[in-house]
Design goal:
With 428 residues, the protein is an alpha+beta fold. The chain has four domains: 31 residues; 30 residues, no CATH class; 219 residues, no CATH class; 105 residues, Phosphorylase Kinase, domain 1 (2-Layer Sandwich), CATH 3.30.200. It is built from 17 helices and ten strands. The strands form three sheets. Strands 3-4-5-7-6 form a five-stranded antiparallel beta sheet, with helices on both faces. It has a three-stranded antiparallel beta sheet with strand order 8-9-10. It has a two-stranded antiparallel ribbon with strand order 1-2. Strand 3 and strand 4 form a beta hairpin. The longest helix has 40 residues. The N terminus is likely disordered.
């Protein structure tokens, strides 16, 4: 302790001099080191950044697109925009080994292209509907048996061997729903509904007089309206396409691009795949307009209890084995019964529509026309007046004003969806 105490007078002077010398050296070394590091980083960063500009841009674009697509569709929103409010999606370019250019598969980013349109099956057009209506007026039923769905529906055979399906319901609004859904499909030029007409159960008419006992066994009442639909053979179950299953559940031009990358599919299989999806795009619009409860909404609603139900065939949807035509069956919940239950089921009706961004151009044009003219109620009632006898019109009411109002609102919703898709995905 004594030595240390004696050293105190001179030790601070020595330490101060030493500290000043070391501090200057340290500053010099630090400056040199900082300069070297800065120079190295300044040279390295530009080299790394410009090393592969094509790869850099491409990877950035893909990352942005994937993020944008998932943001848009998994959140059921088309609000994704860049800061400049300009869509960041590039024009789709399809793989060449499938021999289809982009415009042949998707036109203007949101419409099915000419190669898909020309491959669509003919289905049931106006001429076939008129032929069926004229046929039923002169037809005679010789046999009636169980079939054509649930409850009191029946399969009938006519004198010449043709068959038909009869929909009989205690509730008149289900007959109205079936009939006016059929009329709406005609107005939209959808070829996916079988020819149908309305008749009345009247044992005095030639149509029914040979099957009195069968009618009694079926517990049908006289003077009840029925819908008589042409029987369609060669029908298979139709499954829900993968693009509409959770967690993807969307269809746009990028999904089409991804499907073309499937090397297992040859060009013909590829087109058949798109032909089915094109009909699904019509089905989604049709079922949204009618608020059909008995088809895809049934699967979506029950998904909360059964995760495998989306792998099961869609309700009341079939595919013709000889033409790939999708047939939209049993539309009785449309426009009346389904509208009464919108509060409970609207979320399921909307989820597919809001994630659909590719349409048949003709269907989209019809929607735009109906939106502008606002005359869907007049068109439906005109068909009802023109195609039914006074006997039918005395028993079966026309479509109610309330249903027409809701239908117009839903036409507007589809119209707005088309506009959103044009904004997001149009090539122009």
């Amino acid at each position: 302790m004594g030595l240390m105490e004696k050293s105190l007078p001179w030790e601070p002077l020595h330490s101060k001099a030493y500290s000043t010398f070391g501090y200057k050296n340290l500053c010099l070394i630090s400056a040199i080191f900082a300069f070297s590091v800065g120079l190295s980083i300044g040279i390295l960063i530009p080299l790394m950044y410009f090393r592969s500009p094509a790869v850099q841009v491409r990877n950035s674009s893909v990352a942005n697109n994937v993020h944008a697509i998932r943001t848009v569709f998994l959140n059921n929103s088309f609000a994704f925009k860049s800061e400049s409010s300009t869509p960041e999606y590039p024009t789709v370019s399809f793989v060449n080994n499938h021999e289809h250019s982009d415009e042949e598969l998707v036109e203007n980013g949101i419409y099915w292209g000419k190669n898909v349109e020309k491959a669509l099956p003919e289905g049931y057009r106006e001429e076939k509907h008129e032929l069926w209506g004229d046929y039923v007026k002169k037809a005679v039923v010789i046999k009636m048996e169980n079939g054509c769905g649930r409850m009191q529906n029946r399969l009938v055979t006519f004198a010449d061997g043709l068959k038909g399906c009869v929909r009989y319901r205690q509730n008149t609004d289900q007959i109205q729903g079936e009939l006016f859904s059929f009329y709406l499909a005609k107005i939209l030029d959808l070829p996916n509904l079988a020819p149908s007409t309305v008749s009345v159960v009247d044992l005095k008419q030639p149509l029914w007089q040979n099957i009195r006992n069968e009618i009694a066994s079926a517990q049908w009442n006289s003077n009840r309206p029925i819908v008589l639909t042409q029987f369609i053979s060669n029908l298979n179950a139709a499954n829900i396409p993968a693009v509409f299953k959770p967690a993807e559940r969307h269809l746009n031009k990028f999904d089409v691009m991804n499907i073309t990358k499937n090397k297992i599919l040859d060009p013909d299989d590829l087109i058949r795949n798109f032909v089915e999806l094109a009909q699904w795009s019509d089905l989604i619009i049709f079922d949204y307009l009618t608020a059909n409860l008995d088809r895809i909404v049934n699967n979506l609603y029950n998904y909360q209890w059964n995760a495998n139900i989306m792998d099961a065939p869609a309700h009341n949807l079939a595919k013709k084995s000889d033409s790939s035509l999708l047939v939209f069956l049993d539309n009785e919940s449309g426009l009346l019964h389904g509208y009464r239950l919108l509060k409970k089921y609207e979320i399921y009706h909307s989820i597919l529509l809001e994630n659909l961004c590719i349409f048949r151009r003709h269907t989209a044009d019809k929607i735009k026309q109906l939106k502008v003219q606002g005359n869907i109620g007049y068109l439906l009632r005109a068909l009802f007046e023109k195609q039914n006898s006074d006997t039918v019109k005395d028993i079966l009411p026309t479509i109610p004003d309330k249903s027409v109002k809701i239908l117009n609102e839903r036409i507007d919703k589809v119209y707005q969806q088309i506009l959103k898709c044009e904004s997001e995905y149009s090539n122009s």
